[in-house]
């Protein structure tokens, strides 16, 4: 997990009707998952993300998550934001909400 994922969760937890936590509760969830952060975002992470953005047509934010996944030596990314089953730079995108058995 990258630091960006934690922040995206926090922001969405405050404003998505399906979640809607107050800031304190959302921060507690972030704190619980903080040990899962595998790599801090660096300049190299950003440069790789810019190439992925260019080569694969992803948003810069999605490319940054893929970049952090690659730098963490992970081959799977669980997200609902990208196409389920898609392969990007050796990372397989899986949507856990489509198939709970893949968790």
Strand content: 5-15%
Largest β sheet strand count, sense and barrel closure = 3 strands, mixed
Q: Provide the residue-averaged pLDDT.
A: 88
Instruction: Order the strands across the largest sheet as they lie in space.
Output: 1-3-2
Q: Helicity, in percent?
A: 40-55%
Compute the separation of the termini in Å.
Answer: 15 Å
Dominant shape: globular
Contiguous uncertain segments of 5+ residues: none
From the helix content, strand content and strand pairing, which structural class follows?
Answer: mainly alpha
Radius of gyration, in angstroms, nearest whole number:
14 Å
What is the string of SSEs from the N terminus onward?
HHHHEEE
Number of DSSP-assigned strands = 3
Number of domains: 2
Report on this structure.
There is one protein chain. By secondary structure, this protein is mainly alpha-helical. It has 2 domains: 37 residues, no CATH class; 62 residues, no CATH class. It is 49% helix and 9% strand. It contains 4 helices and 3 strands; from the N terminus they run H-H-H-H-E-E-E. It has a 3-stranded mixed β-sheet with strand order 1-3-2, with helices on one face. The protein is globular. It starts with a helix and ends in a 9-residue tail after the last strand.
């Amino acid at each position: 997990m990258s630091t960006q994922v934690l922040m995206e969760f926090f922001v969405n937890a405050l404003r998505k009707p399906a979640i809607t936590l107050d800031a304190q509760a959302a921060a507690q969830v972030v704190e619980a998952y903080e040990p899962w952060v595998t790599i801090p975002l660096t300049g190299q992470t950003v440069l790789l993300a810019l190439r992925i953005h260019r080569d694969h047509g992803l948003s810069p934010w999605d490319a940054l998550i893929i970049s952090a996944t690659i730098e963490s030596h992970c081959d799977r990314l669980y997200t609902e934001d990208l196409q389920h089953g898609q392969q990007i730079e050796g990372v397989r995108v899986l949507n856990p909400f489509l198939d709970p058995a893949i968790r």
